[in-house]
Amino acid sequence: MDKLIIDRKKIIDEFASYTSNYDISDGKIRLKVEHTYRVAGLCDRIARSLCMAEDDINLAWAIGMLHDIGRFEQIRQYGTFSDEDSVDHAHYATELLFGNGMIADYFGSINTDVYNYIENDSTDGKGLSESLGIIKKAIYNHSAYRIEEGLGEREVLFCNIIRDADKLDIFKVVNDTPLENIYSVNKEEISKSEVTGAVMQALREKHAVLRSLKKTPADYIAAYIALAFELVFPESFYILKEQGYLDNLLDFKTDNQDTKRQFQEIREIIEEHITEKIK
User: Fold this and answer.
1) pLDDT above 70 coverage of the chain, percent
2) Which burial class, exposed, middle or buried, applies to 263 when counting CB atoms under 10 A from its CB (0-12, 13-18, 19+)?
3) I need a surface site. Which of 22, 110, 172, 190 has the fewest CB within 10 A?
4) Cα(183)–Cα(220) distance, integer angstroms
C-alpha cells in the first residue's frame, strides 16, 4: 500500500530552504515564517488532544507547516497580505503546491505526478491519494468563512484542526501588533470608534463577521474576537484561555462610553460561550 511518508525534519528543512528565497528581514515575511511554526505546533497539540493516530498527528502538523505557503509569493507579487487586494492566499497555496508540483519537495514518498495520487483513490481510503487530498482540501479551506460543502468526514476533521490552529495564532499576532499599524489609523481614531450595528449583531448571534461588514477600527477588533465562536475543539478553547490574548482584545481601550458598553456586552457573550464549550 502506498503511504505518505511525513518526515518532519525534511519538511522543516524544505520550508526553510523555500523561505530563504525571501527577505527574512522584512517584518511581513518574518511574521509568516514564525506564524507557520506556531500553527504547526498548535495543529499537533489539537490532534493529540483528539487521541489521533501518530500518522494523523503528523498529517495535521504537516498541514500547519504548508497552510500559508502562498503568503510569500503574495507579498512579493502584490506587496500586501490583503486577499481582497491581491489573491486568495489559501487557494494560491494549493496552486503552488499541487498545480506546480511543489508538494513533492516536502514528501520523499512522492515521485510521480501528484494528481495521479489524488484522482486515483486508494482502496482503503488511507493511502497517498487520501492524505494528499486531505492536505489540499484543508489548505484550500483554512481561511474561508465556511468550509466548502460535500467534504468527507476526515477532510472536515483536518480542515477544522488547521482552522482552529490558525485562528488561535491570529489572536497572538493581533495582540502583538499595534492597532495603528494594522489599520493605518491613529490612536485617537481607534479610541473614538464604535462597533457598528451589523457587527454587534454577528457577535450576539455568536458567529464570525463577514469582511464586508467591517467599517471601523472597533469593528475589526470585535471581528477578531468573534473568531472564538468558530473554534471547534475543546482543546482549542483551553489554549485560548491559556494564551490570554483574547482578554487583551476584550480590554479595548476607548474614550467612547458607548463603545465601552459594547465591549462589556461582547465580553459577557464570549465568556458565556467559552464556559459552555469547556464544561
Assistant:
1) 91
2) buried
3) 172
4) 9
Cβ-based neighbours of 2, under 8 Å, separated by 6 or more: 109, 117, 122, 127, 128, 129
Cβ contacts of residue 104 below 8 Å, gap of 6+? 110, 111, 114
CA–CA dist 44, 58 (Å, integer): 7
Give per-residue burial for 162-199: e unless 16+ CB within 10 Å, then b: bbbbbbbbbbebbeeeebeeeeeeeeeebbebbbbeeb
β strands within 227-271, DSSP E? none
What's the average model confidence in pLDDT over 213-223?
Answer: 93
pLDDT digits (tens, 9 = 90+) for 29-52: 999 999 999 999 999 999 999 999
Give the confidence band of 183 by pLDDT, cuts at 50, 70, 90.
low
Measured CA to CA, the distance from residue 16 to residue 9 in angstroms comes to 10
CB under 8 A, 24+ apart: contacts of 106-114 = 106/10, 106/11, 106/14, 106/15, 106/62, 106/65, 106/66, 107/4, 107/5, 107/6, 107/7, 107/10, 107/11, 108/5, 108/7, 108/10, 109/2, 109/3, 109/4, 109/5, 110/4
User: What does the block give as the cell for 97?
Assistant: 503546491
Dihedral sign, Cα of residue 87, residue 206, residue 239, residue 260: positive
Q: How far apart are CA 69 and CA 19, in angstroms?
A: 9
Global pTM reads 0.91
Q: Which grid cell sits at 29?
A: 515575511
